[in-house]
Here is the input.
Amino acid sequence: MKELLGVNANVLSLKGGDKLFEIIIMVQEPKYELNNESDLIRTRIVDEYRFFLQERHFDEFIETIKRIKDHPALNDEQAKSDE
Here is the structure.
């Protein structure tokens, strides 16, 4: 399973005063190996995902993330794990 390391953004100005947001999401995924002495070696592999959003779609993107966070199925799973 990948683990979120961070989210960054760059804002670019376009002609006409519009803005373009570059969203950068960094995640890590551990990889485990055994060496010749049977020692467990953990390696972290970092992936970076980049995508662009126009300013007019930025609010819609945020609302979609909020809907995912507040989805009843996720809240049910969270309640079960809290028990």
